[in-house]
Each structure stands twice: as structure tokens, then as C-alpha cells.
């Protein structure tokens, strides 16, 4: 991908998500089924500053960042819906999370998130994260989209 494609992709992501670097954990959108599901990828940088302090002897991406990437992917599906455009989807809870193996610098994570019913602007999403086709994490997250 050349720099122009990277910039175009970032612009598309930032049209939907309110997140900005350094707390944007989506590199590209693979697909969005508005209000229902989304698939996105994040290229874990080799030089991500948090690796200097998170197990510097064995650099791994913190689980909370994996969950955040999953949540941001879900937010792509939610915030692309006409009723929620321009809003912020807040992470409201984590019902369950399982981590199967560490994610390391230089790997690409692929999150697949499916949105459940949204009632009173609160919803639930099932997310799975893969690296190279291998599931590395899964979680059910709760989110809120205030007026």
C-alpha cells in the first residue's frame, strides 16, 4: 500500500470514528455492514512506544489494546448507521474476554465484530481477533451511544 492509499484509508476511518492517533487502533476497513457488523485490521507497529514498558524483554501487545481494537471495529459498524453518525460510542463494559496467544510487534490483527440488538442506546457486540487466520482473542463488549 502506498502513502496515498494509507492516507485515503485513514481519512475514511476518521470520517466514522472519533479516535485519533495515538489511540486509533484501526489501520484499514475490510468491510462494514452498517449497524450490523464490521471487519477491520490493525498493523501493530514495531516501534509502538508502549512496548518499551510492557514486558520489554518479551514485547507483546497489552490485552486491553486488543479489546480496544475490537471495540473500535464494532464502532465502525455502529457509527456508520444514520442514527448514530457523528456520535461517540463508549465502551460500557466487558462481559467476557479470552486471550489465546500474545500479539507481537509487526503482526496484523484482524477484528470481526457483530453487533447485537441496541436498546435505549446501549448494545452488546461479539468480537473475535485473528492474526494470520489464528484466533488470538474474543470478547463480548457492551457499548453506549448517548444522545
> How much β-strand is present in the residues?
35-45%
Helical proportion?
10-25%
Quick one: overall form? globular
> How far apart are the termini?
38 Å
Tally of DSSP helical segments: 2
User: Any idea what the radius of gyration is?
Assistant: 15 Å
Instruction: Calculate the mean pLDDT score and round it.
Output: 94
* Name of the CATH superfamily: Hotdog Thioesterase
Low-confidence residue ranges: none
CATH topology: Thiol Ester Dehydrase, Chain A
Output the structural class. Answer: alpha+beta
CATH architecture: Roll
Structure summary, number of beta strands: 6
Number of domains: 1
Report the order of strands and helices: HEEHEEEE
Which sheet architecture does the biggest sheet show?
A: 6 strands, antiparallel
For the record, the CATH class is: Alpha Beta
Strand arrangement, major sheet: 1-2-4-5-6-3
Amino acid at each position: 500500500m502506498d502513502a496515498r492509499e494509507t492516507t485515503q484509508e485513514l481519512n475514511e476511518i476518521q470520517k466514522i470514528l472519533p479516535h485519533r492517533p495515538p489511540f486509533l487502533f484501526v489501520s484499514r476497513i475490510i468491510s462494514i455492514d452498517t449497524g450490523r457488523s464490521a471487519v477491520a485490521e490493525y498493523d501493530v507497529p514495531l516501534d509502538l512506544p508502549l512496548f518499551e514498558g510492557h514486558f520489554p524483554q518479551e514485547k507483546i501487545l497489552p490485552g486491553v489494546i486488543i479489546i480496544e481494537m475490537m471495540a473500535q471495529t464494532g464502532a465502525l459498524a455502529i457509527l456508520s448507521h444514520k442514527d448514530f453518525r457523528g456520535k461517540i460510542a463508549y465502551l460500557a463494559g466487558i462481559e467476557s474476554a479470552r486471550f489465546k496467544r500474545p500479539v507481537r510487534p509487526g503482526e496484523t490483527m484482524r477484528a470481526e465484530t457483530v453487533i447485537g440488538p441496541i436498546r435505549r442506546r446501549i448494545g452488546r457486540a461479539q468480537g473475535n481477533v485473528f492474526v494470520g487466520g489464528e484466533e488470538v482473542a474474543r470478547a463480548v463488549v457492551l457499548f453506549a451511544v448517548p444522545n
